[in-house]
Amino acid sequence: QVQLVESGGGLVQAGGSLRLSCAASGPNFSSYSMGWFRRAPGNEREFVAGINWSGDSTYVATSVRGRFDISRDNAKNIVALQMDSLKPEDTAVYYCAARSGGQLTIGFINSREYESWGRGTQVTVSS
Fold it and tell me: Which end of the chain is more exposed for a tag (fewer CB within 10 A), N or C?
């Protein structure tokens, strides 16, 4: 399994941007599809975005579509989440996760489909 470490979170004003990174270590990173999830206080973990092994297939949740973008660099073992036009409701702990199987097959928005998780990074958006 891969080990995952998120970074890039912080405090930002509404309308601002942040770029989260997820550094992976371990074998065969490029064989995994990857996802970003978030959990706000009192809420369940929510799917944000997913990307297949090569990066040519992505899916972004409707709640953040047009503002967030996911990408990956397999040479550097990194998955990124670019977040623009941030809103206070985007405040949450953001997690990256790895799923065996390189494609965004059925179930990829379900957190239970992912085997490896990072510890998360806090994003706080002030109004």
Answer: C
- Say how many Å lie between the first and final Cα of the chain, rounded: 39
What's the rounded Cα separation, in Å, for the pair 113 and 34?
Answer: 11
CA–centroid distance for 60 within its chain: 10
- Number of residues that this document lists for the chain: 127
Q: What is the CA radius of gyration of the chain?
A: 13
